[in-house]
Amino acid sequence: MTTPARATQVAVIQHCAGTDVAANLATLSHLSRQAVDAGAEVVMWAEAFAYLGRHAGKTEILEPLPQGGPILAECAELASSLQCDLLLGGFHEAVPNEPERCFNTSVYLTRSGEIAASYRKIHLFDVQISDGPRLMESKQTEAGTKTEVVTTPFGELGLTVCYDVRFPDLYQSLVNQGAIALSVPSAFTATTGAVHWHTLLRARAIECQSYVIAPAQHGQHSANRSSYGHSLIVDPWGKILAEIPQGDGFAIATIDPAEVARIRQEVPSLANRRAFE
């Protein structure tokens, strides 16, 4: 029997990852324990949670899925010990027979430590901004091709990662598959975050009439890479329920499927969609 969806406390964790995997995981474990002690049943981590640095170092820690390796094992043990569902926002997944490439994969673990779903980031961050970041994620990362929705205590959650947030068709597709909440784990650059982060996340929440849950990296990772922070939880009306402006920390909000149903009934924009040429 499927357990009915219910109002659930969800936490976003914010940290500043570097190249020390053990230190990154220790910080996340500490903050996650605090979040669970504060009432969180689902905890979500940012993109590149275990390692953020040069690709040469990343290739040394890639792990295949679903079998995983030491990083996945430690995360699964944490979910089990805390008895919480845990979203690994951006897991460095090995590409079969391609040792120099990886997938940027969001992995949803149940409270027993089992993988319930995994989503490979579809839209890769290839940008060249004047006086800003110049990044080519596709140079070393393989793009995913499939959407993913996972059942959680609060209902269906659509999985996305960071740069995906600029592509609203993806989010509409996830809503069509039943999503009432959308996760956007990110390492959004400081340059683009300052002007686009809040607007994009609130827009996706309003147009999809869904909660948007966005754990993010913050701070200076290296001489040439910094992240905006401002981890957010946004309700389906576009209201920011929780935010971590800067620094390591966690924030909690209630994800309530009844609120989604109410808003979708009162303003039936999803039901009013029409095909056009």
Overview of the molecule:
With about 280 residues, the chain is an alpha/beta fold. The chain has helices at about 20-35, 55-60, 70-80, 170-175, 190-210, 255-265, and strands at about 10-15, 40-45, 85-95, 100-110, 115-120, 125-130, 135, 140, 150, 155-160, 180-185, 210-215, 220, 225-230, 230-235, 240-245, 250-255. The chain has a single domain (about 10-265), classed as Nitrilase/N-carbamoyl-D-aminoacid amidohydrolase, CATH 3.60.110.10. The chain contains six helices and 17 strands. Strands 1, 2, 3, 4, 5, 8 and 17 form a seven-stranded mixed sheet that branches. It has a six-stranded mixed sheet with strand order 9-10-11-12-15-16, with helices on one face. A two-stranded antiparallel ribbon has the order 6-7. Helix 1 (about 20-35) runs parallel beside helix 3. The chain is globular. The mean pLDDT is about 95.
Low-confidence stretches: none
**Multimeric state:** single chain
What portion of residues is helical?
25-40%
The CATH architecture term is 4-Layer Sandwich
Number of helices: 6
Specify the biggest β-sheet: 7 strands, mixed
Count of distinct structural domains: 1
Strand content: 25-35%
CATH superfamily: Carbon-nitrogen hydrolase
H/E topology pattern: EHEHHEEEEEEEEHEHEEEEEEH
User: Would you tell me the structural class of the helices and strands?
Assistant: alpha/beta
Q: Report the CATH C-level class.
A: Alpha Beta
CATH topology: Nitrilase/N-carbamoyl-D-aminoacid amidohydrolase
User: What is the mean pLDDT?
Assistant: 95
Question: Radius of gyration over alpha carbons?
Answer: 17 Å
Question: What's the N-to-C terminus distance?
Answer: 43 Å
Gross morphology is globular
Q: Let me know the number of strands.
A: 17
